[in-house]
Amino acid sequence: MKPCSIHSWARLSSCREQPIFTTRAHVFQIDPSTKKNWVPASKQAVTVSYFYDVTRNSYRIISVDGAKVIINSTITPNMTFTKTSQKFGQWADSRANTVFGLGFSSEQQLTKFAEKFQEVKEAARLARDKSQEKIETSSNHSQASSVNGTDDEKASCAGPADTHLKSENDKLKIALTQSAANVKKWEIELQTLRESNARLTSALQESAASVEQWKRQFSLCRDENDRLRNKIDELEEQCSEINREKEKNTQLKRRIEELESELREKETELTDLRKQSEIIPQLMSECEYVSEKLEAAERDNQNLEDKVRSLKTDIEESKYRQRHLKVELKSFLEVLDGKIDDLHDFRRGLSKLGADN
């Protein structure tokens, strides 16, 4: 069954109908091609209502989703509502050539809907039987009138027959009066139902406008969501870059600490060398003292020729010590110069590394 448009629903609502039970459920229809699978007829839970048609004395199940009527099923006594699970039920509509399914949010709602279906089905059966009785009564009355007319022709002068005819005419007049009163009552009910249907139509139009507004708001929210997701991706990328920079900074700090430790070691070595260099003036002073003593010895050589032989050994030893001290001093100065050059190179490398950072 194809869903009706909102205009068709408005024409349907113009009939003399009134809702007698309303609930909410997800609507499904059987797949016309496979006759097995369920096809959703609504995107979310919608209102499903029982309507009573005063004019036709019939009952219908009607459901509207936005601007479409997705259920318009007239209930007949032959229909059966079947519970297939704790929250799902179905019934077949031969006129619509489809099977409707309803999914409820709770078992209590399904039970109430099934009970109302059975109640409405019984009311439809009683209405059908009553309608058949009226048809049979009307047929019998027509036959009786025809027979009475034939009897009147045969006994036109009979007094009792005239009395009976008058009595029947009076009954018909009373029935006609009651029928006119019922017509007025039905017209009042019809006007009331028309006003109610007009309000329903206006409400449906407002609902359709609200749906359009919700769709626009949903579109705006979806665009805003996409924008926020893109912003989050950008922030995550920036956080990754910041983490990489932090790792680099950590490595640089570790390297600086290592270099500072090496610098402290070099400074300790330099301090030791400086302490050793403080001994050099003393050695030089001793060397000068020895030289002066040697010179004095040479000046006294002439006067102390007798002492020369005894002092030669001392002089040779003194010269040997002087040469040895000079060699050690030279070696020490070379080592000191190398250490000072290494320290200057190290300071320049450290200064360059600090400038790069």
From TrEMBL:
InterPro entries per the UniProt record, alphabetical: Homer, Homer_EVH1, PH-like_dom_sf, WH1/EVH1_dom
Gene Ontology CC terms, in alphabetical order: cytoplasm; plasma membrane; postsynaptic density; stereocilium
Biased composition (Polar residues): 137-149
GO terms, biological process: G protein-coupled glutamate receptor signaling pathway; sensory perception of sound
CDD domains, alphabetized: EVH1_Homer_Vesl
Coiled-coil stretches: 176-321
Record keyword ATP-binding present: no
Cytoplasm found in the keyword field: yes
Keywords for the protein's UniProt record, in alphabetical order: Cell membrane, Cell projection, Coiled coil, Cytoplasm, Hearing, Membrane, Synapse
Residue ranges of the region described as Disordered: 128-164
Record localization: Cell membrane; Cell projection, Stereocilium; Cytoplasm; Postsynaptic density
Molecular function per GO: G protein-coupled glutamate receptor binding
Domain WH1: 12-124
Family: Belongs to the Homer family.
Protein name in the entry: Homer protein homolog 2
Species per Swiss-Prot/TrEMBL record: Muntiacus muntjak (Barking deer)
